[in-house]
Amino acid sequence: MALRTSNEKETLMVQKRILTGAVIGGALLILALPAVSTAVKEKPVASDGRAACYECHEEIKALKEGSKHARLGCTTCHDKLKEHLANYEVKPVTLIDAALCGKCHKNQLESFWKVDYEAQPRKEKGVPAGRSPMMDKLLAPYGFTIEHNEPRGHVFMVTDQFVVDRFAGGRFQYKDSWFGVDKTGKTWDILVDKGPDFKMAETAKAGNPTCIQCKTSDHILKWKYMGEKDPKAKWDRTSDIVAVAKDTNNPVGCIHCHDPHGTQPRIVRDALIQAIAEKGAPMFAGKDGKTDLKVMDFRGFRKIGIMQKADSRMMCAQCHVEYACGKGAEFDSGKAVGYDDQRTNHMPLKGPKELLEHYKKQQNFFDFKHAVTGARLVKLQHPEAETFAGSVHDKMGVTCADCHMPRLKDKAGKSFTSHMVIKPKLHVKEICLRCHPKYTVEQKLYQIDAIQNYTKGKMRKAEYWLGQLIDSYAEAKRWGVDEATLAKAREKHEEAHVLWEWWTAENSDGFHNPDLARDTLTASIAASKEAVALLNKAIEEKTKKQP
Description:
The chain has helices at 6-32, 34-37, 50-54, 58-64, 81-86, 98-102, 106-113, 135-139, 157-163, 187-190, 209-212, 241-246, 270-278, 312-316, 352-363, 384-388, 392-395, 400-404, 428-431, 441-478, 483-505, 514-544; strands at 78-79, 93-94, 172-174, 191-193, 266-267, 294-298, 302-306, 328-329, 336-337, 368-369, 376-377, 407-409, 415-417. By secondary structure, it is mainly alpha-helical. A hairpin with a 5-residue loop joins strand 12 (407-409) and strand 13.
């Protein structure tokens, strides 16, 4: 036998430690994951080479064996396995393109790529006919005032993000101009980069890497848990957003919600996993107070959350929640909070009444100061999951997929779940009447319109009184009203803002939870009125002292 060099001995020792650690860690993982470990049966492992993979990847064995994907060999989704087995430092190529899944799940993939022409493109929220006509005034000077559109479907979630005027100064445009607005496929087959010197008027550069993680699955192996820096991670929270964008080629893929090894329902968004598993958020808990989520840690680099039973509420909450992803500042000190701080990748999983307190007391974080009042404001994202939680439909066991992803039949009569994600209001017969058969389409649509019209009315009133607050504040400053009074008004502004903007950021116009909408919007109106009265009284006292 040839003598080993010191370097060879060291390499061998490292390999042994990794192998031993992986086996022990995998064994412990199986004990900790009863829902997952049930997939491991006392059956011979297929003689397709996977046994060699399992020697280091026991957690994958727990997911794969006994599952619906058990018959698929590792080479189905991985290339360069021989090189990896010969030298563990040579990483295999992992294929995560949804097209691979589509070879077997054709109907699901085709429905995902189908354009929903009922969803309007580039539909601004901050215009007279939009969801929030006074947005520019109420959110000044935040980047969303440049362009903030209603969503139009998952197939466009990357391209719509990149071309929006607030994202990259307008440097990303459709290759075919306006003819490209309904093009689907690879990002850079549809868009073109005009270059760093290209700048359009009335645009902003407000993108960040964390935001992109819910819109694509491309970076799942390039992004460490919570976006922390790591030599093994290509991207992190502080990465150059243009570089991240140029490396983003696909919208969110199958692997966001379905584990490719064993098809188990799952979540991969780190901030959601942290909120549920580490911080104990009870939003998706059952009657026993426990959430059906078992977290698997892949060697300290990334984590996934596996469910025993699919819960689309949790799957959709990977993006359809309020979350902090941009730079901000601390409530108490005003100190800037940058992307190096984990507070810029955070999901509170709180309702609108608890949210401000959470950001003030627990996170000590706000997004921006209002241009006129200087109030410390939280910029709401899309809190559909939190809005739906505790609603009538939620209590009845209805999930997101029941209304937005209907069961369809293909030409051969085979049933499948549509992945286009529809607007139920435009498909009342197929969606609503399944549970409400005694009503006609016209009746249900009338009821939906009543809820949404009523909520929009409250939203307009909340906007009006926030506008009055801002105007009254400006006038009070001109009159020299004391800082103590102005500070009280700013606190009321912060309160009224969250209770209002929740509903402009949420995309159901109140239908997901009409009672919560009325409760919080009227509370916003009341807070604004209180501030206006306070300021007007102070102004009146000042005018009395004038000669």
